[in-house]
Amino acid sequence: MDRLQSQPNIKSLHKNKLLRTLEILAVSAKLGTTSFGGPIAHLGYYHEEYVMRRKWLDEKSYADLVALCQFLPGPASSQVGIGIGLSRGGLAGAIAAWLGFTLPSAIALVIFALFMQGMDISSAYWLHGLKLTAVAIVTQAVWSMGSKLATGRSRATIAVLATTVSLLWPNAFSQVLVIAVAGLLGLWLYRKSNETVTETSLVISISRKWAVVCLGLYCGLLVLLPLLGRLFNPDGHVSGLMLFDSFYRTGSLVFGGGHVVLPLLQSEVVQTGWITESDFLAGYGLVQAVPGPLFTFASYLGTLVNGIPGAIIATIAIFLPAFLLIVGVLPFWNKLRHNHHIQGALHGVNAAVVGILLAALYNPIWTTSVNSTGDFVLALLLFGMLSYWKLPSWSVVIAGAAGGMLLGWLGN
């Protein structure tokens, strides 16, 4: 009798898990379709959707997750999304979050690679409007996070110093160094703090055993793939294994994400003769025009090397290290962040994250987008739509694209 009663409960549990996974997929797909502007802008879109609108996690948990992903190699914005999906729906939720955010841009770039090579869209008016949308999105994120995480003289000072260093010393390692130093400052400044440690809304259901398996797989593939490529493909032909090794290695060793990965990919596919320099540069222009992660540039390159199968292999390979790392690290991170000493360090780190976002708001987002009074007015209107009129981000994206076209027609 008890067994018969438990069967409906098990079915109901599976149904709830499926519905939650589909919800994560739908929300992340919406973000993957509307999140223009690059990695820093993506964090603004995430903040608006996951923290402000849906309240899937609180401000502190979001900032801690962003700080962690800045330390890890790979695409930080994608890792943040995977972490939120993992918290919301377990491993299935993490996969759904990655698929939803990645597939729209990956599919668009595959189509571009097949049918639209040679087209120049870099000066399109609607694209300029999307850049102004990114200005509004990131401004809103900096404003909201700064009001909570960079309060008080000491934290505001850390944020200002982080902005200064990030602007004056812009390279792939400056962000990691800034966050590390901010963590040490926070550990020292708040070493005597008796602040109560609040419960995090970022609940991770993955066991530590599986986390260790993911970390072992990350390191193992990094070592084994080059050996297997030489063993099973001694003639140097571009096989699926060689393609997987090349893109997995790139995704494993990139700190800073986004634009930092482009020169590394160039050395992997152009210098080896897999594709031409002109095709690479055409794809570089195209990837600026699509939403979602810049790492989906691998989808374009994989298509040129080996068609649709190449696109699938390259896309999975370049994102797999980021997925393995975030799933492997989060179960330990969630416990560490409750330590009072770690909490002190996180006060400094979170303030530094606000400063880094502010630096990115100025350069490259503001400097490459706001070129006239009309640009500033449109960005201000979009900011008002987000912050004061509380309109959904997808409507702001549409308004930004339309406003960019209008500015172009008016000769702005």
From TrEMBL:
<keyword id="KW-1003">Cell membrane</keyword>
<protein>
    <submittedName>
        <fullName>Chromate transporter</fullName>
    </submittedName>
</protein>
<feature type="transmembrane region" description="Helical">
    <location>
        <begin position="210"/>
        <end position="228"/>
    </location>
</feature>
<feature type="transmembrane region" description="Helical">
    <location>
        <begin position="345"/>
        <end position="365"/>
    </location>
</feature>
<comment type="similarity">
    <text>Belongs to the chromate ion transporter (CHR) (TC 2.A.51) family.</text>
</comment>
<feature type="transmembrane region" description="Helical">
    <location>
        <begin position="248"/>
        <end position="269"/>
    </location>
</feature>
<feature type="transmembrane region" description="Helical">
    <location>
        <begin position="308"/>
        <end position="333"/>
    </location>
</feature>
<feature type="transmembrane region" description="Helical">
    <location>
        <begin position="281"/>
        <end position="302"/>
    </location>
</feature>
<keyword id="KW-1133">Transmembrane helix</keyword>
<feature type="transmembrane region" description="Helical">
    <location>
        <begin position="95"/>
        <end position="116"/>
    </location>
</feature>
<feature type="transmembrane region" description="Helical">
    <location>
        <begin position="391"/>
        <end position="410"/>
    </location>
</feature>
<feature type="transmembrane region" description="Helical">
    <location>
        <begin position="172"/>
        <end position="190"/>
    </location>
</feature>
<feature type="transmembrane region" description="Helical">
    <location>
        <begin position="123"/>
        <end position="143"/>
    </location>
</feature>
<keyword id="KW-0472">Membrane</keyword>
<dbReference type="InterPro" id="IPR003370">
    <property type="entry name" value="Chromate_transpt"/>
</dbReference>
<feature type="transmembrane region" description="Helical">
    <location>
        <begin position="21"/>
        <end position="46"/>
    </location>
</feature>
<dbReference type="Pfam" id="PF02417">
    <property type="entry name" value="Chromate_transp"/>
</dbReference>
<dbReference type="InterPro" id="IPR014047">
    <property type="entry name" value="Chr_Tranpt_l_chain"/>
</dbReference>
<keyword id="KW-0812">Transmembrane</keyword>
